[in-house]
Amino acid sequence: MDLGLKGKRALVIGASRGLGASIAATLAAEGATVVAAARNLDAITGWIAELPAERRGRVVAAKLDLADLASVEALAETLIAEGGVDILIGNSGGPPPGEAREAKRADWLLHFEAMAANLFHLAQRLLPGMAERRWGRIVTIVSSGVEQPIPRLALSNGIRAAVVGWSKTLSAEVAGLGVTVNVVLPGRIHTERVDQLDDAAAVRTGATRDAIAKASMASIPAGRYGLPQEFADVVTFLASERASYVTGAKIRIDGGLIRGI
Fold first, then answer.
1. What is the rounded average pLDDT of the residues 176-180?
2. CA distance 70 to 88
């Protein structure tokens, strides 16, 4: 199936590793030109160098720190001067684990800026170009915690739920302009973030990380953690021409982890 991505330009945030890197590489494989943005440029150039030769020229690394508004503004200005982007993949790092009763006001403000407010601002800057071309895709990665709150991830559960509300509202505003807006909910996709959470649980409980991971997998109907490529394939479809009638949606990619309908 031709996804209609040849000639499209995408910005993928958080593309130094994990889900972001997989999405960026998959978009490039489908013919899109990709701006892979993150704080760690060396990590991005590292995985670009491992791509097949014909794809390397489709990916460029860009510096971006979502916690720094000046960095967000600088990238937005550069992209707009270059003609903008057709696709925005929003992907922010997760905050540290902790209970809701422990989180301080300063914690909420700090992480909301990086995970939500600056992401909203970047989308606002890039939307006019999409609207003018009558074609755009905004796909934001949240978490299964927005539907089934994850214990000890209070900051993530709360802030990412706000991102879902923003996305749904925006989707109705821009649907008539040819721009779709969706969120994707990863379950336990095997990235460094999942390993970090398993490590934290191991320290807290005194169990080994392998034991924690095994118990976690047992709670997933698929019986395993997902692969970053499996996640990237769904996101790439949502970013494509073929998904032109999918907007305002929450798409689960979780192996059946969320039990509610």
1. 98
2. 19
Q: In what order do the strands lie in the sheet with 9-13?
A: 59-63, 33-38, 9-13, 87-90, 136-141, 179-186, 250-253
pLDDT, position 236 = 98
DSSP alpha helix (H) spans, 134-257: 154-174, 192-205, 209-218, 228-238
* Contact (CB, 8 A) for 61 and 75: no
* Domains of the chain, residue spans: 9-187+227-246, 188-225
- What the block records as the tokens of 100 is 């809701």
- Give 115-166 pLDDT, tens digit per residue: 999 999 999 999 999 999 999 999 999 999 999 999 999 999 999 999 999 9
DSSP helix/strand/coil, 62:
strand
- Does 197 score more than 90 pLDDT? no
CATH fold of the domain at 9-187+227-246: Rossmann fold (3.40.50)
Long-range residue pairs from 240-243, CB within 8 A, at least 24 positions apart, any chain? 240/3, 240/4, 240/5, 240/30, 240/137, 241/3, 241/4, 241/5, 242/1, 242/3, 242/4, 243/137, 243/180
* C-alpha triplet 204, 210, 214: angle, nearest 5°: 100
| Run of H or E residues at 73 | helix 69-81
The answer to pTM > 0.90 is: yes
Total residue count of the chain as it appears in this document: 261
